[in-house]
């Protein structure tokens, strides 16, 4: 959801610290996903497909159905070239073009903080998926990390595209109504939850 330039800068940075943080984040996401039983994965807000590419390269998606959804056509074109194994489609997080419980897992990484109505997106994701794997920046650590590396100084480190902010406890409270939290993990400066949805 950051747009092509933002994600390219994040996932293809030459900064050693940035690369270390991204690698650690992806390791934690993969660890959570390994707890999901085999079945279809849908990444909502897939952006340019970097996480799905990582999952394929690590052998996590063998014999699994996979789809990627995003609202940005430029991001989807990039993703289709990066991860040709995946069916990508333009769709809003508020209206997923899938039947109830059509997917074993719906994954939303770095999406909710950009949305005007995160609860609406979570309701839709929990309708479609048996499991949710969701991450957001962990505040105030994310803003502090940005500020210390000289990013977004005028906003005290806050990304201009972020309109919601959660700490670990608040993020758990946000997700609890949608099912059973199986794992709550941190990977500085992010927090993620694996949840089994109701019904």
Describe this structure in words.
There is one protein chain. The protein is of the alpha/beta class and 199 residues long. The protein has a single domain, classed as Vaccinia Virus protein VP39 (Rossmann fold, 3-Layer(aba) Sandwich), CATH 3.40.50.150. It is 36% helix and 23% strand. It has a seven-stranded mixed beta sheet with strand order 3-2-1-4-5-7-6, sandwiched between helices. A hairpin with a 2-residue loop joins strand 6 and strand 7. It is globular and about 45 Å long. The chain starts with a helix and ends with a strand.
Topology:
Layout: H1 4-11, H2 16-33, E1 41-44, H3 50-57, E2 66-70, H4 73-82, E3 87-90, E4 103-109, H5 118-128, E5 129-137, H6 141-148, H7 168-175, E6 179-187, E7 190-197
Parallel strand pairs: 1-2, 1-4, 2-3, 4-5
Antiparallel strand pairs: 5-7, 6-7
List keywords for this structure.
199 residues, alpha/beta, Rossmann fold, seven-stranded mixed beta sheet, 7 helices, 7 strands, 23% strand, disordered N terminus
Beta strand %: 15-25%
- Helix and strand string, N-terminal first? HHEHEHEEHEHHEE
For the biggest sheet, the summary is: 7 strands, mixed
Task: Give me the Rg, rounded.
Answer: 16 Å
Structural class: alpha/beta
The total of helices stands at: 7
CATH architecture: 3-Layer(aba) Sandwich
What name does CATH use for the topology?
Rossmann fold
Q: Whole-number average pLDDT?
A: 88
The number of strands is 7
In CATH, what is the class? Alpha Beta
Overall, the morphology is globular
Poorly predicted ranges (pLDDT <50, ≥5 residues)? 1-5, 152-157
Q: Helical content, roughly?
A: 25-40%
Question: Number of domains in the coordinates?
Answer: 1
Q: Report how far apart the termini are.
A: 29 Å
Strand arrangement, largest sheet?
Answer: 3-2-1-4-5-7-6
Give the name of the CATH superfamily: Vaccinia Virus protein VP39
């Amino acid at each position: 959801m950051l747009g092509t330039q933002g994600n390219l800068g994040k996932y293809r940075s030459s900064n050693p610290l940035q690369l270390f943080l991204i690698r650690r984040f992806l390791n934690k996401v993969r660890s959570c996903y390994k707890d999901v039983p085999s079945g279809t994965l849908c990444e909502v807000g897939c952006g340019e497909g970097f996480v799905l590419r990582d999952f394929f390269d690590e052998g996590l998606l063998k014999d699994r159905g996979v789809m990627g959804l995003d609202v940005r056509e430029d991001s989807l074109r990039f993703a289709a070239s990066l991860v040709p194994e995946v069916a990508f489609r333009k769709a809003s997080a508020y209206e997923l073009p899938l039947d109830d419980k059509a997917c074993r897992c719906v994954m939303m990484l770095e999406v909710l903080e950009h949305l005007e109505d995160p609860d609406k997106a979570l309701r839709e994701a929990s309708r479609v998926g048996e499991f949710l794997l969701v991450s957001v920046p962990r505040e105030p650590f994310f803003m502090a990390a940005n500020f210390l590396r000289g990013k977004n100084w005028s906003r005290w480190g806050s990304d201009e595209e972020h309109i919601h902010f959660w700490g670990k406890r608040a993020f758990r409270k946000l997700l609890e109504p949608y099912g059973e939290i199986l794992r709550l993990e941190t990977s500085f400066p992010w927090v993620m939850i694996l949840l089994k949805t109701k019904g």
